[in-house]
Amino acid sequence: MHYHPPLKDISFVLFELFNAAQTLNRYPEFEEIDQDLMSQVIEEAGRFASEILFPTNAVGDREGCRFENGHVKTPTGFKQAYRQFQEAGWPALACDPAYGGQGLPHTLNTVLYEMLTGTNHAWSMFPGLLHGAYSSLYHYANDELKDVYLPKIVSGEWLATMCLTEPQAGSDLGLIRTKATPADNGHYILEGNKIFISGGEHDLTENIVHLVLARLPDAPPGSKGISLFLVPKFLPENGVPKVRNAVHCTGIEHKMGIHGSATCSIQFDQATGWLVGEPNKGLAAMFKMMNAARLLVGINGVGVSETVYQNALAYAKERIQMRAATRPENRHSEPADPIVMHPAIQRMLMSQKAYAEGGRMLAYYSALLLDGAEHHPDEQIKAHFESELALLTPIIKAMLTDQGFEAAGQAIQIFGGHGYIQETGIEQYLRDIKIAQIYEGTNEIQAIDLIMRKILADNGQRLFNLLDQIQETINTTTQPAFVNSVAALTQVCQHLRALIPAISDASRQSPDLPYQIAPEMLRLVGHAAMGWLWLKAATIADEQKEKDPAFYGSKIDTAQYYFDFILPETRQLIQVIDQYLIHSQQGHSTNYLDSLM
């Protein structure tokens, strides 16, 4: 296995497709940002990921985390890698300088985590929640909590967790039972159990900051009665962890993948905590962290897609098997050819490439939206960015992780029998990335969130705004080579515009309908967004192709492959949605509960 930071592809997306440096330095906080600075940060991130982190990946999978006497020991090399990560200032990258941060854009943090998750998914989960915890506390905690905890989180001296899930309450947070009782001195006493807590116990840092959802004694039932609490592993005095809090890890899970990540059961046995934000409004504060986590998980899909593609391509160039249907003159005397010459292998590799590069464009675009939503001086434009980001977040989390899993499966297929054994290392990526389709809200839940909260809730206005932007690009794309691509993308957008009122009307009589077609709608909107960015990328590559024919020619070929052989998936998606609509209009039941019981 190998990993080469895809610096040229990253630079193309940031600086040619999105003009990221010029966009960012229009914001007062980023006036000093330029392309040279961004490139330097990206190169250093690539060096850390490939030279320091990647060598720990296979070791982490083989050794896993060990649970001994209530403590977790991480695999060989994890602690040393984290120390270097912290000393280099990576945790502070996109945090406020007022708390020790570097004040750089979220966009750079996104690039960093693409490479971290692509080189060691399990390890990256330990620092992965830092920025979400920082964001929740930054926006909702009182000044006293901020002053004590944010500098430690920003510096990476203390890691953080997100404690939501309980044995009886997975994604349905309204069912949680953990209790928080007010104490005399302004803090709270927490009692309860949480499960599936990533990084809930480890040996990487001297303290762990748990952000915990719990109920106050007088809380109303359901999700409206949830509050958020900060519960440290050690109670600090003057910034130094002193007294052990009543927070205990009772065990770690033995999992299909991400063996190097400690997935913990945590018990709060009259633990001391502090309220974050207002009572019974904990979900609003926690959603800051959850949305950051969902974007990170989507980036995970991109990172894995890139790594498995790199290795599948390298293997396909080296592996000699059978004669290709079409052979160059210089190979006519050879008994067999590299499998990269076989059409079936080319199809899998091109699909991997199209989704990896398309996913990167979508992820970086969303990161720029996040920077704009936080830093643009115009409040109306900030609101627009935030609205568009909300629309795209479930797509990024679900579609990009689905494609990461698919890419890993295709890589194993290309490796053949050598992919199925542990020796080559490629099968680890399939096992590791599977969890990304499940945690932070399963991909099915993401699809429901998209259609119910992000599309139907405002009668499609958010989606129509995105489609308007896509139409602007379509209207300005004049190169004859892209006529068919423009027509295909136009058709997808037209279908989406027509579907929203039809779904809205039908759902009044058939409340199951939006839930039944949610997965198809998520991929349909996802393809509209990805097709839009591929069209923009192709036109730029066409304009620049004389400068570097191989690089830009590959971009054009990949875009064409996407439009010709991947985007047609939307026809099947639309057909499924139409069938559900027809059944709904004709009064035919599409509830199959009786058949399943």
TrEMBL record:
Q: Which organism is it from?
A: Neopusillimonas maritima
Occurrences of domain Acyl-CoA dehydrogenase/oxidase N-terminal (ranges): 43-157
Keywords for this entry?
A: FAD, Flavoprotein, Oxidoreductase
State which residue ranges cross the membrane: none
Q: What is its EC number?
A: 1.3.99.41
Task: Determine the domain of life of the protein's source.
Answer: Bacteria
Per its record, how is this protein called by name? 3-methylmercaptopropionyl-CoA dehydrogenase
Q: Where is the signal peptide?
A: none
Which family does the entry's similarity section mention?
A: Belongs to the acyl-CoA dehydrogenase family.
Tell me the GO molecular function terms.
Answer: flavin adenine dinucleotide binding; oxidoreductase activity, acting on the CH-CH group of donors
Which metal ions or organic cofactors does this protein require, according to UniProt?
Answer: FAD
